Amino acid sequence: MIHIKLTVNGEPDIPPFTSDISYLSKTDEEINANQVAMIKDKLNKKLRININESITLYSAFVISELSNNMPIEQIQKDASILLRPEQVMIGVSETLRKMSFEITLDDKIPRMVILETPIGISDYIVKSS
Questions:
Q1: If you average pLDDT over residues 6-15, what whole number do you get?
Q2: CA quadruple 29, 34, 37, 42: dihedral positive or negative?
Q3: In what order do the strands lie in the sheet with 2-9?
Q4: Phi, psi of 107 (to 5 degrees)
């Protein structure tokens, strides 16, 4: 069993949102693995992904790394290069400025992983006419 409590903070003027996700069986975990594979396929085709797909990808990454007993500091470092601004739709980077994962794997003690600015913010260039 895997349980994730996710809190996402975006732009300062937008309230944070939370999500509770549970994978209660191996079937749930397999469905999630298939979703991740489809998202990675989109990225390989140079298609941009949305907020929900980005959250799914980061959640799967953090779960995988925690399952492999990686230190939280290493997870945070590696997550910072998981997605680039050009791989996500407009607004995703700004919406996912901070992601806090509280993850419980197989009814063990919950572990907290906080990703600060997981996707770099693009520099918008406005050309004057």
A1: 90
A2: negative
A3: 17-23, 2-9, 98-105, 111-116
A4: 60, 25
Question: What is the rounded average pLDDT of the residues 48-53?
Answer: 96
For the chain, give the number of residues: 129
Chain Cα centroid distance, residue 111: 16
The answer to whether 20 touches 3, Cβ cutoff 8 Å, is: yes
**What sign does the dihedral 110-71-113-45 (CA atoms) show?**
negative
Fold held by 2-116: Urease; subunit A (3.30.280)
Q: φ and ψ at 65, to 5 degrees?
A: -70, -40
The two three-digit tokens of residue 65, written as one number? 């790394």
Give the helix/strand (H/E) hosting 116: strand 111-116
Q: Given pLDDT bands bounded at 50, 70 and 90, which one contains residue 43?
A: very high
